[in-house]
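Box 3.1 — From sequence to structure: Lipoprotein
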Amino acid sequence: MSWSKIIACSMAGLILTACGGGGGGTGAAPASPAPTPGVFSRKAATVGDFTTYKSVQTIQYGDTKPGTVSAYYTKYVSEQNGNLHNEMTQFSGADITASTDTYDQDGKKTKNVKPGSCTTEYLPSFPDGLPATVRIDTVWDNSITASYSCFSTGAKGSYQFSTKGKVLGQETITVAAGTFSTIKYSVTSTTVQTTSTTVTENTCWADPDSGVDVKCDAVRTFTSTAAPQSNNTRTTTDELLYYAHAATQRKKLGTERFAGDWAGVYSGADHGYCTFTVELSGQLHGSCQSNGLGGTFALSGAIDASGNLSFILSANGVTTPTFQGTLDSPGYMAGTWLLSTGGGGSWYMQHQ
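Predicted structure (token representation):
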């Protein structure tokens, strides 16, 4: 998600004045020192941490009537390599592919990869949301060069964007995932390219212990500077539904984090390839193609909020293998399968 930048102002210290007594004289009491703002530092993310959001977007093109759509997406820590870690974003919709962001030890974004599309590297790295350590009066201002290389078209180039942010204060809010004591902040991002300008203004509420955004309201305005000129505005509210953060030992689980398209293979007494969809409710449906015994089988089953999974394959009304497993990640699943007549093997599926 791209963040926005807004204004920057500092928090004023409290100065007390008092009236002196006796003889009607007055005088100012010594100024009380401004309180030292508290420091909030997030605990590091680890593999398996995830967040699932419901995103409601209203989009308007020019003077046309705005339309509203809802989507669900999950971000999870998929890999750690030294001081860097990767967070993959999976969407419940079949029309949006996953992407992977790389962050450094300070939680600053260094790279984005969209499989089969483009890789973008950022210099310098920048906080994609609330910085790792903040005070109540923290402000930040970053100018970034984004260099991209696209596999599908061979296009290469770069563009400039900036992010300006400010901590607005502390606020307790309640969302679907629960009640959180948050840091409220605003960010405005501005991207100027050859033929367009995009400005996104965000107001967000983040859990300071994990750095997780609990809620974000955003307004994104795209303006084309090329003829014929055009513009569109997108208003978005993202709200946290489910999450797990190992370092804080806090979590709320739900089936929505698994929603979307999956594909993978099974091997053993037979081998083949499967594609299926997980609905928001946790129901599975799809098909498998056997490359050993031959034939195409319908796939059906379910997964619960904890990641316990079971599905079967059937053809012409006859049930064949039973597949079972437990998911440790919203990005991949694995387990074993068994034929009722004996024999079986293992399977592995990946979120698309």
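Summary of the box: The chain has two domains: 42-252, 257-351.
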